[in-house]
Design a protein that fits this description.
This protein has 20 helices and 33 strands. By secondary structure, the protein is an alpha/beta fold. It has four domains: 8-156 and 166-283, Divalent-metal-dependent TIM barrel enzymes (TIM Barrel, Alpha-Beta Barrel); 312-452, Vaccinia Virus protein VP39 (Rossmann fold), CATH 3.40.50; 455-586, Hnrnp arginine n-methyltransferase1; 630-749, no CATH class. Strands 1-2-3-4-5-6-7-10 form an eight-stranded parallel beta barrel, surrounded by five helices. The relative contact order is 0.07.
């Protein structure tokens, strides 16, 4: 981690002079301090007692520091004497008032985080008060200070005298993760609540420790008492503590040093220097880590290269993968050796989905190594990528490569191939419709031909990740149901996760597929839960056999070293599911393929039955399949009232497609009465001005880059009299809105009369 410093803070039990404490901490190399909001010995009495009417200030003045210093240098600590869940009403109510008082003052100071000590499982009232404060809209984080092992767990059974407790009671007192899980569940898994893990001298087993790595750990607190002294008199940590600290570094946690200086001759700064040394001496990041920097736990929509033309920078990123194309070259070489003919005749290769040419180059290199004559058809549907292919043909490849600028699904090959090479794999193997595409081109392959890849299998593993689930919850769309974000698979670089069990194989596809093509799949998988935990969803991976024993994989156990072209997938569930160690988790998974669409559905039936996720009407949902007509493929979504179309260059094309849709669905589209107008919205008020365009503007074609397109007809609606007099008196029959995020048109259709037929779309 050369060039970057560890963020490390100093914890103070109290401070008589804030500025002096800050100066001392900074001179010792610390970046921030954890400071009590109120002196911990100042126990206010609000209900009864001699100090009810005590005069004087609550705490130090906020003018001791600037607002910027409060908001960047101070983590505020809540008083440890509070008993928010006491059975004694006076103590509980008094603690509530003091707790609220300190939270409100911390908000007044605009501190970035508030450190709250969680003492045990009795935290229901604390959770209610934290929730109440969160709902007021405050921006800071709430760090729950929780030890890795409870004080009871570190004591001898005879000393602690807890032998009379039942097994469940003992488990709740010992297992500090259960304290945390109870509080965060009561707070509805709020994104604002994080963990400040207290690293204890005694450490839990590695299986228990793994569970914490799936939690939102913001900071790690380590006491000076945990450090040992080396031969030179400096503080150091044991090997096990070093391993845990370095693992937490991967989550970008901040370190906090607490306790008195136990090496006064060396100074408190040596603790910070040692932790920074551990940070600097981490293993250097591998190719995947360097490539994925900044994308850890960041949800992304999967690419759809069959539907959308990729941009140059996307090709460039994937072409930097040092492993994928090396493996493809090895596979092509092995295939060429197996197909090499005695008469040294030409071997025909077809690269389907050539992109900017890396597979073509790999194939030519393999042919040169195998000393084999080859002729290659490079088929690519993206006209922009074809420009690059044509230049490579002119400058490097020559006549041994023919560029075919068309969709592989529409191409009529002039001859059959000995080897078909494709790279249509998604993060889940088949999620980019590789089976449908390769089944469609099997006719181009000779009877003894080879397909690269020849087989790929999707894998699934249950996982716990509060962070990923919260990120999915934030992916809301006003035009979709509330549960939609949890019925969408995402591509994500998994980091802050805990795998409940090992990945299991799910669906397998083999090529060439000479039988009847049926790409529907269903399977059920059974997992065994290792520790008490919470299920937030499932991770998706793939393992691919290119040819023979040459493979590529993103399954954790068999991951191709250094390959970064694919991140795993994340299939969330609607509600987190609490599981116990030893529970049997049964997952059901479907790949549904109709004549027009493909999608996944999943559900859990053990230990609890949950609703099926992502159920669809097969007539109107899913990814468009390659066997559909050209006009239908550009319809991304369709029902009785709405079309979502791919991007177009003109209004004319959009309108012609609507006519096709109208003919297929029975919806009445009246071109004669239609007109196109542009909409311009003022930012300073709610008035929207509309400008008429003549109906023949449709025929001329209106650039989608300069206008949002509206086609209006047929319905009556209210008109704002304050708007321009040019506002059309005919209401909208159809509406076209260009989205800047997905580059598509959204078309809302309405019937022109009561007699108009509106059935399901037939395209």
């Amino acid at each position: 981690m050369e060039g970057k410093r560890l963020s490390c803070g100093r914890d103070f039990t109290f401070s008589s002079d804030l500025n002096t404490s800050l100066s001392k901490a900074f001179s010792d190399g610390f970046d921030f301090v954890c400071m009590p909001i109120v002196n911990p010995r100042y126990k206010r009495e609000f209900i009864e007692g001699p100090a009810v009417k005590r005069p004087g200030a609550l705490t130090r003045s906020d003018m001791l520091l600037t607002s910027q210093d409060w908001s960047t240098l101070i983590v505020a600590k809540i008083s440890p004497w509070l008993q928010l869940d006491s059975k004694h009403d006076v103590i509980r109510c008094n603690s509530e008032k003091a707790f609220k008082q300190e939270l409100i003052f911390a908000s007044h100071l605009s501190v970035p985080a508030i450190l709250i000590l969680l003492k045990g499982t009795e935290c229901v009232n604390m959770a209610r008060l934290i929730n109440e404060h969160i709902l007021r809209g405050h921006n800071h984080q709430y760090w729950m200070q929780i030890p890795l092992k409870s004080a009871l767990d570190q004591c001898d059974d005879v000393i602690q005298g807890e032998g009379h407790l039942s097994g469940d009671e003992m488990e709740w007192k010992y297992d500090t993760w259960k304290w945390w899980n109870k509080l965060r569940t009561l707070c509805d898994t709020s994104k604002k609540i994080g963990l400040a893990l207290e690293i204890t001298a005694d450490l839990p087993p590695s299986e228990i420790m793994d569970r914490w790595y799936g939690e939102p750990v913001k900071a790690a607190i380590i006491s000076t008492s945990v450090f040992m002294t080396n031969k030179k008199g400096f503080p150091v940590l044991s090997k096990e503590h070093q391993k845990i600290i370095k693992r937490l570094f991967k989550l970008d946690v901040q370190m906090i040093v607490s306790g008195a200086d136990r090496h006064p001759e060396k100074g408190i700064k040596t603790y910070q220097q040692y932790l920074d040394h551990l940070w600097q001496t981490q293993d250097p990041p591998d190719n995947i880590s360097r490539f994925a920097k900044g994308y850890e736990d960041y949800l992304q929509c999967p690419l759809q290269p069959l539907m959308d033309n990729l941009e140059s920078q996307t090709y460039e990123v994937f072409e930097k993968d040092p492993v994928k194309y090396s493996q493809y070259q090895k596979a092509v070489y092995s295939a060429l050796v197996s197909k090499k003919k005695e008469d040294d005749s030409m071997i025909v290769l077809m690269v389907l989905g050539a992109g900017r040419g890396p597979l073509v180059t790999a194939s030519l290199n393999a042919a040169q190594k195998a000393e084999t004559r080859v002729f290659i058809y490079a088929v690519e549907k993206n006209p922009n990528a074809v420009v690059t292919l044509e230049n490579l043909k002119y400058e490097m490849w020559g006549d041994q490569v023919t560029i075919v600028s068309t969709d592989m699904r529409e191409w009529q090959a002039p001859e059959k191939a000995d080897i078909i090479i494709s790279e249509l794999l998604g993060s889940f193997g088949d999620n980019e419709l590789s089976p449908e595409c390769l089944d469609g081109v099997t006719k181009f392959l000779k009877d003894d031909g080879i397909s690269i890849p020849e087989q790929y299998t999707s894998y699934v593993s249950p996982l716990s990740s509060c962070k990923l689930w919260n990120e999915a919850r934030l992916c809301k769309d006003l035009n979709k149901p509330p549960e939609a974000p949890f019925e969408t698979p995402y591509v994500v670089r998994l980091r802050n996760v805990y795998l409940l069990d090992q990945p299991r194989p799910l669906f397998t596809f083999r090529h060439p597929n000479k039988g009847i093509a049926d790409n529907n799949r269903y399977d059920e998988l059974i997992f065994t839960v290792r520790e008490d935990t919470v299920l937030h969803g499932f991770g998706g991976y793939f393992h691919c056999v290119l040819f023979g024993d040459i493979t590529i994989s993103i399954v954790p156990e068999t991951h191709s070293p250094g390959m970064f072209s694919w991140f795993p997938m994340f299939f969330p569930i609607k509600e987190p599911l609490h599981l116990k160690a030893g529970d049997r988790l049964k997952l059901h998974f479907w790949r549904v393929a109709t004549d027009k669409n493909v999608w996944y559905e999943w559900c859990i039936t053990e230990p609890r039955v949950c609703p099926i996720h992502n159920p669809k009407d097969p007539h109107i949902h899913g990814l468009p399949l390659p066997t559909m007509p050209h006009e239908a493929r550009i319809i991304q979504y369709a029902d009785d009232s709405t079309l979502v179309l791919t991007d177009f260059d003109s209004a004319k094309k959009v309108f012609l497609l609507c006519e096709l849709y109208g003919m297929a669905s029975g919806a009445c589209i009246n071109k004669e009465k239609s007109r196109v107008i542009s909409k311009r919205a003022r930012r300073n008020n709610n008035t929207t001005r509309y400008y008429r365009r003549k109906s023949n503007a449709i025929e001329r074609g209106l650039s989608r880059r300069s206008h949002n397109l509206w086609i209006r007809r047929g319905l009556h609606h209210s008109i704002n009299t304050n708007q321009s007099r040019d506002y059309p008196t005919t209401p909208p029959q159809g509406r076209f809105v260009r989205s800047s995020t997905d580059q598509r048109y959204n078309v809302q259709l309405y019937p022109t009369s009561a007699d108009c037929k509106t059935t399901k779309p037939g395209v």
